[in-house]
Amino acid sequence: MESSDVELDLERSVQAVLRELSAQAPALQSNQGMWRWSLHKKVERDPSKSPALVRILLRELEKAESEDLRHVIIPLLHTLMYVLTKATGIAEELYRRTYAFCMRLLTLPAPYCTVALDCAVRLKTETAVPGTLYQRLVIAEQNLPSELYPYQERVFLFVDPELVSPSVCSALLLEIQAAQEQQTPEACMRHVVSHALQAALGEACHAGALQRKLQASPRHALERIFHAVVAAVEQMASEPSPSREGHLERLEEIYCSLLGPAAAARGRCGGHDALQDRPPSIPLPSPYITFHLWTDEEQLWKELVLFLRPRSQMRLSADLEALDLQGLLPDRELARVSVLSTDSGIERDLPLGADELLTPSSPEMEHGGLQRKGGMKKRAWPLDLLMLGGWDGPPGLHRRTGRPDGDGELLPGVSRLHTARVLVLGDDRMLGRLAQAYHSLRKRETQKFCLTPRLSLQLYYIPVLAAKKPAASRQPELGELAAFLGRADPWYQNTVNTLCPAIHKLAEMPPSLGSSRTVDPFILDVITYYVRMGTQPIYFQIYTVKIFFGDLSQDPPEDIFLTELTVKIQDSKLPKDGFSPRRKGVAEGPGAELSICYQKALLSHRAQEVTVSLRATGLVLKALPGSDTEVSGPTHCPPTAAPLPDHTCLNVSVTEVVKTSNLAGRSFSVVTNTFRTANIRIQSQDQRLLTLLLDKDSRRTFRDVVRPAAWSCCSGWPCSCPSSRDCPKSGKSTTRSCWPWRRVTRVTLSRRLNGTGL
């Protein structure tokens, strides 16, 4: 195919992606996401098309900038960066044009400026030292040993077997296993060496002969070559002013040592037949993904702990109950003990002979020093807990060779060398369970600060709703959070939200273990693209609810919810000697008499409490903003970030029963009232009991409730409660649990749970 035909074909594919992003083609709705995937596949099968695709994407980006079409800038920029990461032989002039474009985007508001800054930093290094992005990505994702770049990443895929069908679970597991069987450490090392040499040497590299040489090399020789290439790239990238010429000279030496001076000279002179020795494709391996059926409440914490441990010390599930990990369980030795002192501090009160000098070696001298018994001790962390297994370099923050963006040093001498990308599949009920696990993990960290300084935790979400059912049994509200992310970010809508139908189609395919099933693993490719390029986090607020039962012998438990809390009126009533007698004069009717005390959510953040009494059939407390408040302004200019006021308040809908009297008699009507609040307390005034449903999950249902109270985990309940019995916090402090989410326009549960501590 001639170059003009190649460019026309790529141009048509790029225009299809643009139509998809503009949502102007309803016929493309069923195949959203396929055009971008097929575009990447064309370049992957024929790497010589990469320069043409880079020119086309860059031209479309500059056109979008001039016409102020911001809705396509971030998706196209991520597509361009993905191509540049995998490609070789890109002209330096294209790198510089892309870098200049990113620098111009810095004048735009977030998230455009934040995404552009991240891309500009990476482009600057890639321009001076070609192949750096690819090398670092493969080393981190495949956990290849490297002293100069010791970062490790892992994708944890969690699926709730009660919410996702067994066919979907088995289909995803087969696709992941089939793809990773071909990604051995030796193959990944060969990819890194080939890509680095081709990116640096360009047409002077005899790609076919190089790959044949690497295929024939034994493991020890391959490791030696791999470490030499990594050292050359990382040492040059760590210099303040890296030189492209110096980098080329160092890699030429490695290339000559592999193929010999004669072959290297023929390559520089173009002596090989270009048609016969077409540069082979160098794949970008998918990240290392572990598949987990979520059956244990502490499974997330256990998997993160095992990820941090050296492989030589890793134990299986039989030893998980005894996982102390040198300080990860509560330390009972740090209990504070009060000691009654009989020393008045006056010299004359000393016992006789106390002023006699003691010999330095006497036991009395050893015990006579100033001591503190049972006080607050500073924890001395074991060395192997502070430093990673296999990392023998000096302690501290290792910025010499560059690091994944957004991670810093939380404790002196402790670096975040591990990144855990937790990806969950399911609906809003699965997100509620993830929020529970994250809140529990953060609460555990307040008692034992061990995972946070060493681990960067990033949360990702792919909606997988139940297959289409009859209209009477559908539950579209189970995808409320996915719909919110799709409204806020067209990239997420077109890339991630479209995976649900494709996953169900994959599950319907007949099981096959042949290689033809995994030639083009669409699901795995999109998951990989999402966790790599979803870099802008969205933060969600976690709310705590304290539940008081009608049976006073039961201790009021605390739980958390992320998306929704539903309060319904039960048909049953309290016994006559119950918690609260029914008020006299209250007319019988549908619903129950409720007393609602809440603090209004004001822009000024002033504390204004409101107490109302009304008859209602139920309440719904939603933590997500509605579609009418989220999407405002022109559709071509999506919101740059989720508005903070919507994320830090509850949207309450009360179904109130209004009594009317007329000549025909007494009647009741239903009216829905809505308001926003930072925290709320609800109490049944008559003998009717309440039922609570958290995050739409029937497994998290509480019955026989008389008084629930909900408040933000970050702020806690205000201290104006009349007594500790009425205060839902009961004098206890809460754990700050702002929750980030990964998506790309970004604004964490995001490309990182990144911004909060873990």
UniProtKB/TrEMBL annotation:
Q: Which InterPro entries match?
A: PIK3R5/6
From which residue to which does any coiled coil extend?
none
Going by the entry's taxonomy, the superkingdom of the source organism is recorded as Eukaryota
Which terms in the GO cellular component ontology are assigned? Answer: phosphatidylinositol 3-kinase complex, class IB
Entry GO MF terms = 1-phosphatidylinositol-3-kinase regulator activity
Q: From the Swiss-Prot or TrEMBL record, give the protein name.
A: Phosphoinositide-3-kinase regulatory subunit 6
